[in-house]
Specification:
This protein is of the alpha/beta class. The chain has 2 domains: 258 residues, TIM Barrel (Alpha-Beta Barrel); 90 residues, no CATH class. It is built from 15 helices and 16 strands. The longest helix is centred in the last third of the chain and has 28 residues. The radius of gyration is 20 Å and the shape is globular. The chain starts with a strand and ends in a 6-residue tail after the last helix.
Length: 372
């Protein structure tokens, strides 16, 4: 029996609501996946993640390879057992982390050599090794190694795209575990001909899903939207589409409108550690003096644990005193905001009112939040 499947349940324009079947349960899409870089979503327990509505999360191959080591995780029963998470997990290939450290890596056609940020030791990552590491980790969905180029550098984008295609093919040949789904990644910067060529090449591999990489890395919103329009026309409709590294409410709504299904981002927990609460209309900086006596919840319409129990004044106090609880409570809220939004999007698609939700959302986010 195939452990994987993708079934579209409803459409509204280009937006679609679907079910992604994995070995660790069904995932309703569109879905937001919090990032658990080091086998933990920072400051939160698995139970808190479940209560926030999380059905799938992401862990980081680069960091787990370096510490504690993918072979140790395999010996201990795999990533699900290691981190106490019973639901679906996606791991990235480690490529983004390696390529973001441009001063300490060397890339060639076979792979990339890099130095550990922990101790300076030298390591070699190839498509085959990235797959082997992820097979040790045991995630439900794993990613082919790719090269993420600067979005507006055409020559670099072309060379990185060619490597990405070759590495995706090698990744597919190296992949052994039938209980894991390997996704390929489309690159090509902001250039239409490159992006369409890349989408055709990655789609031709016939993998269970396809990702769009190299966005939200410095390009404009209009450039991002244009790329997603091209991808909507080029990628297979019967397979999940994963937009990598995108996670603001506005970006998710606009990407769903262009046929995307899966999203991840470090933003909600990173903002929480820097005293910021996500709202549908922007953010609150809780260090502001105006919150010192503010007894309102962060968002009166939010049903998360934080908003049900605590005031802005108390959260500001936690931020000022650098109490760990502050990061936990803001992370619960920020992740709930995105999980609630994707649930609303799914319901709107099923009821045929996604376009109306999108229009309402655009009007909301265009107006500054008076409560801030």
């Amino acid at each position: 029996m195939n452990s994987f499947g993708f079934r579209i349940l409803a459409r509204d324009g280009r937006a679609r609501s679907a079910v992604l079947q994995t070995p660790h349960g069904e995932v309703a899409t569109p879905v937001f996946m919090p990032v658990g870089t080091q086998a933990t979503v920072k400051a939160l327990t698995p139970d808190q993640l479940r209560d926030a509505g999380v059905s799938m999360l992401l862990a980081n191959t680069y960091h787990l390879y370096l510490r504690p080591g993918d072979e140790i995780i395999a010996e201990l029963g795999g990533l699900h057992a290691f981190m106490g998470w019973e639901h679906a997990i996606l791991t990235d290939s480690g490529g983004f982390q390696v390529f973001s450290m441009r001063s300490i890596r060397e890339v060639d056609e076979d792979g990339v050599t890099f130095k550990s940020h922990l101790d300076g030791s030298t390591h070699r990552l190839t498509p085959e090794k990235a797959v082997a590491i992820q097979e040790h980790l045991g995630a439900d969905i794993i990613m082919a190694l790719d090269e993420c180029a600067l979005p507006n550098d055409r020559e670099y984008s072309r060379m990185a795209m060619a490597r990405t295609h070759a590495w995706a093919d090698r990744s597919a040949q190296a992949h052994q575990r039938p209980d894991q789904a390997l996704f390929g990644i489309v690159q090509g910067g902001v250039f239409r001909d490159l992006r369409e060529e890349s989408a055709r090449s990655i789609s031709a591999l016939g993998l269970p899903g396809n990702a769009v990489g190299g966005l939200s890395v410095g390009e404009s919103k209009s450039e991002m939207h244009a790329v997603l329009e091209w991808m909507d026309r080029c990628l297979p409709e019967d397979k999940p589409r994963y937009l990598m590294g995108v996670g603001t409410p506005a970006d998710i709504v606009e990407a769903v409108a262009r046929g995307m299904d899966m999203f991840d981002c470090v933003l909600p927990t990173r903002l929480a550690r820097h005293h910021a609460a996500m709202l549908r209309r922007g953010r609150l900086n809780l260090l502001g003096a105006g919150f010192a006596r503010d007894l309102r919840p962060l968002d009166p319409s939010c049903a998360c644990y934080t908003c049900r129990r605590f005031s802005r004044a108390y959260l500001r106090h936690l931020m000022q005193t650098k109490e760990i609880l502050g990061a936990t409570l803001l992370s619960i809220h920020n992740i709930t905001i995105l999980e609630t939004l994707t649930a609303e999007i799914r319901a709107a698609i099923h009821s045929g009112r996604f376009s109306a939700l999108r229009e309402e959302f655009q009007k909301e986010t265009a107006v500054p939040d008076p409560s801030a």
